[in-house]
Structures are given as C-alpha cells and as structure tokens.
Amino acid sequence: MIVQISAGQGPSECQLAVAKLFEALRKEYGDLVEISKNRGYEKGCYDSIRFRTEQDMSSLEGTVMWICKSPFRPNHKRKNWYVDVSIIPEQGEITSGKEYRIEKFHCGGKGGQNVNKVETGVRIIHIPTRLVAQSAEERSQFLNKQRAMEKLQEKLTVLQKEQEAKQVNAAWREHNRIVRGNPVRTYEGERFVLRKA
Questions:
Q1: What is the DSSP letter of 99?
Q2: What is the tens place of the pLDDT at every residue in 7-18?
Q3: pLDDT, tens only, 65-96
Q4: CB 18 within 8 A of CB 64
Q5: pTM
Q6: Is the Cα torsion angle 29, 67, 84, 6 positive or negative in sign?
Q7: Whole-angstrom Cα distance, residue 55 to residue 89?
Q8: Which of 41, 94, 111, 147 is most exposed, with minimal Cβ within 10 Å?
Q9: Three-class SS state of 111
C-alpha cells in the first residue's frame, strides 16, 4: 500500500504536522518505507511525504488534525492544523518472463526458398497487458524473436512510464484536497500525542 501525508496548501505548521505524523506512524506501524519527501518552508517541515507499507492503513485515509500553538508564530490565534492522509493507487508490475506467448508465422516477400515454407516471423504477446510486437524482417526465426522482444520491451517501458505518471498525478490531486472537520485522528501539543477517541 502506498500512502501520502500532505499539508496541501497549508502553512509551515501543517508541514510540521506532516513530519510529526510520519514519525508517529513509523513508531506505530514499524515497516514504513519512504518513497519521496517534498521539503516545506522551514527546517524539518515537509509539504508531503509518500511511503510504502505492507499493513492496511486505509482506516487513516482522510484528515488528521493537530491541536497546538504555532511554534513559528507565537502570537498566532489559530491552534488547529490539518493534514491529509491519502492512499495512492499502486502501479502494477509489468514485466515477467512467464507472461509471454510466442507465435510463429510464415513470412512473405524476399527470402528465397524459405518464403512461405518456414515459419521465420515471430509475434510475441505480453498476456497481462495484451501488448503485441512482431518481427518478420530477418531471415532467421531467432533474430526475429530478438527483434520482436526488443519492440515489446520498448512498449512495456512506455506503459510503465504512463502508469508512473498516473500515480504522480493521483498523488498531486490528493495533495490539494484537504477536508477540514471530522478528522480521522487528532493529535495534541508539541509532543504530538494521540487523543484517545
């Protein structure tokens, strides 16, 4: 599961809450692996943090509130700071050697006596994505298989990049969405103590 904690358009206090929440969750869940961090305005503050976990954290999706006087602006009246926790859709793993089907076919055109007698053309189908690549340019089946595999790998690379871009776009959309009110959790004070429900 990929999770993002985000300050959205919030000030430094919200960015500090992102850092504090990440550390609190790291202590609570133990297996968090950081994917990316976007630094905030102040030292130790983060606009967003994305991480991976094997545990189900879907119950944390929503808004988390931190009740604390501003550590950056002592005379500031506001005490409630909000951050967003979002589950980001994972991209599927695309390449695997066991997931190909190879078909052979007769080639037309130049090739002398082999034309239409020997199956030298090769078509490779990547079963999970249904991507197809084929080659009939070479006289040997072995070389056509190599060419077709190269073409298929290029297509899979393009698909992987498209999926990564979708994931980043999803993370960015979530980054800008913070719903104040009805928080899934509330933390209090500079020590960031979880308020019991």
A1: G
A2: 988 999 999 999
A3: 999 999 999 889 999 999 999 988 765 555 55
A4: no
A5: 0.60
A6: negative
A7: 15
A8: 41
A9: coil
